[in-house]
Amino acid sequence: MTRNLSAAELWPLPAALPQPVFSDQRWLDAVFLHWRIPEEVAAGFMPDGVQPDVFDGSSWVGLIGFRMEQAGLGRGPGIPYLGSFNEVNVRLYSREPDGTRGVVFLTLDANRLPVVLATRAAGIPYVWSLIRHWPPFPGNGGQVQGTTGEAAGGNRAGDFPLGYSVHRFGGSGARSDFTVIPRLRTAASDPLSIFLTARFGMHGRFHGRTIYVPNTHHEWPLFEADVHQISDELVGAAGIPVSGPPESVLYSPGVRTRFGRPRLLGKGG
Predict the structure, then answer these.
(1) Cα separations (Å) of 104 from 9, 98, 213, 266?
(2) How many C-beta neighbours within 10 Å does residue 261 have?
(3) Rounded CA separation 257/4 (Å)
(4) Which terminus of the chain has a lower count of CB atoms within 10 Å, N or C?
(5) pLDDT tens track, the chain, 269 positions
(6) Hey, where are the domains in the chain?
(7) How far apart are CA 196 and CA 103, in angstroms?
(8) Can you tell me the distance from the alpha carbon of 192 to that of 36, in angstroms, rounded to the nearest whole number?
(9) Is there a cis peptide before residue 12, judged by omega within 30 degrees of 0?
(10) Which of 136, 141, 135, 131 is closest to 165 using CA atoms?
């Protein structure tokens, strides 16, 4: 009989992080929703020098929400106020000719305007939005108390829906509302879940060149989840047509990550 491998056994070993470290962050209460899409659709969004990464004959588009906490510069402490915010992003999956895997962000919604302005200046497609995390707790400004490290102890995550609500500012701003019910007794260790979440860098465009920004972190504590409700316009607004429920639904209480020195692809990179 062939035993089932655990997520830790399937998890790829990340490459050594190029120094210096330029940011240290915590990602909490992550919800991952993914749809299968044709490879040729994803190819139209890839920066030069990378191609869509494929699993089971398809590319995948993800709608991911999480709480950024204590993001700081270098190895220093988190920046007060600006280092903690809600984020929801739409992303695709990329691969270099040498096999280096990453993600390509189509949009990243955040509820901190200075963060949006600074990152857009660097070529990262952030959008300023009102984002609420559900469930909110009284007196906490719509934010939910941390759950990292508490899931195994039977905290409130998993007992009722958890997710995010996004409303982009502006009269025609896209909206998204999605909540899931985590199954905290069912670890997600299948190859697709690892493929979608074991990503250690992003590919993007910077002044006409393709850039790769590496990061590193331990394996996510990852659980299966069930969609409670979803009404999304962000994926379609990013130019990716999807229909029906997501094929992959995952939840993680969170992970700590660090970002290292970026590199340019191609000649002179």
Answers:
(1) 26, 17, 11, 17
(2) 12
(3) 28
(4) N
(5) 344 555 556 788 888 999 888 788 999 999 999 999 999 999 999 999 999 999 999 999 999 999 998 776 766 656 665 678 999 999 999 999 999 999 999 999 999 888 888 888 777 899 999 999 998 643 333 333 334 333 333 345 556 799 999 999 976 689 999 999 999 999 999 999 999 999 999 999 988 899 999 999 999 999 999 999 999 999 999 999 999 999 999 999 999 999 999 999 975 45
(6) 7-264
(7) 9
(8) 11
(9) no
(10) 131
Q: Is the pTM of this model over 0.70?
A: yes
Strand partners, 263: 212
Closest by CA position to 99, among listed 197, 268, 212, 193? 212
Q: Which two tokens stand for residue 63?
A: 């709608």
φ, ψ for residue 266, nearest 5 deg = 90, -170
Please tell me the CATH superfamily of domain 7-264, with its number.
Acetoacetate decarboxylase-like (2.40.400.10)
Contacts of 180 (CB under 8 A, 6+ apart): 31, 33, 161, 162, 163, 225, 226, 227, 228, 249, 251
